[in-house]
Design goal:
9 helices; binds glutathione; about 35% helix; EC 3.1.2.12; S-formylglutathione hydrolase activity; S-formylglutathione_hydrol; about 25% strand; Esterase-like; Rossmann fold; hydrolase; single chain; alpha/beta
Length: about 280
């Protein structure tokens, strides 16, 4: 048994693991949860990584998304990391939208964030390699999805690493941090005020820059129309336009009455898992 495991629960005949390790990338202890479906007892299974939104730890998705019944049936493993480095020696901000709980899945270049806030490298390199090494997961069948700040993380990480991730989807993603207050604050703080550097973390910019080089897997995005952040922060129409410009297939579903929270997420979770299972095979 892996010595990363600090808690284990049987769940829909699979294993829900809580894990902890010392990260060389974020320079602190990091926690994540990992669901292994029953099929993982027979051999490597596809893995989807879930990236959570602002204020979340690994626990929000694990306890509130209602994902594991379907993941068990489909034979999908799900990895849910924390959203930032944490601890007393780690920089923080008074606001909920910066610092601990708000890593934005970028590699910081600026003080005071740079020594720990390296979430892009942590997710795409260190954590991925650790999970592949320690658990029965198929390195050729990796997908990524997320919510809000984590939707931004999933879309940008997928677009920058299509050799690694074969499927992507998002719930209420921040599609263009270059065009919303959450993004301006986070990218300005973590990357610095030179907006040229922001383009590498903006899914609308990335998709247009890739153009014909795009992987042609369909992207799935769900958005609630009663989401309080829709107009000021999320702006899915910008991603819709960017995808249309380069011929990227996108299913963007707008749902009357749904807000930004995990009840919205759990309502459409099965569709997202089926989307990933179909693309990962
Ligand atoms: N005012 C909210 C804003 C943050 C927020 O809505 N976070 C979303 C992601 S952007 C979330 O998933 N919150 C935790 C939860 O619903 O379990 C708070 O402080 O919780």
């Amino acid at each position: 048994m892996s010595d990363l495991i600090v808690g284990e629960h049987r769940c829909f005949d699979g294993r829900l693991l809580y894990c902890e390790h010392q990260s060389a990338v974020t320079n602190c202890r990091m926690r994540f949860s990992l669901y292994l479906p029953p099929a993982a007892a027979q051999g490597p299974v596809p893995l989807v990584t879930w990236l959570s939104g602002l204020t979340c730890t690994e626990e929000n998705f694990t306890a509130k998304a209602g994902a594991y019944k379907k993941a068990s049936e489909l034979g999908l493993a799900i990895l849910a990391p924390d959203t930032s480095p944490r601890g007393e020696g780690v920089a923080d901000d008074e606001g909920y939208d910066m610092g601990q709980g708000a890593g934005f899945y970028v590699d910081s270049t600026e003080a005071p964030w740079k020594p720990h806030f390296q979430m892009y490298s942590y997710i795409t390199r260190e954590l991925r390699e650790l999970v592949l090494q320690e658990f029965p997961v198929d390195s050729h069948k990796l997908g990524i999805f997320g919510h809000s700040m984590g939707g931004h993380g999933a879309l940008t990480i997928y677009l920058k690493n299509q050799d690694i991730y074969k499927s992507v989807s998002a719930f209420a993603p921040i599609v263009s941090p270059m065009n919303c207050p959450w993004g301006h604050k986070a990218l300005g703080g973590y990357i610095g005020e030179d907006r040229e550097g922001w383009r590498q973390y903006d899914s609308c910019e990335l998709i247009q820059a890739l153009g014909e080089g795009l992987h042609r897997s369909k992207i799935l995005v769900d958005q609630g129309l009663a989401d309080a952040f829709l107009e000021e922060q999320l702006k899915p129409e910008l991603f819709e336009k960017a995808c249309a410009k380069v011929g990227q297939k996108l299913t963007l579903r707008r749902h009357e009455g749904y807000d930004h929270g995990y009840f919205f997420i759990q309502t459409f979770m099965d569709d997202h898992l089926a989307h990933h299972a179909a693309l990962l095979g």
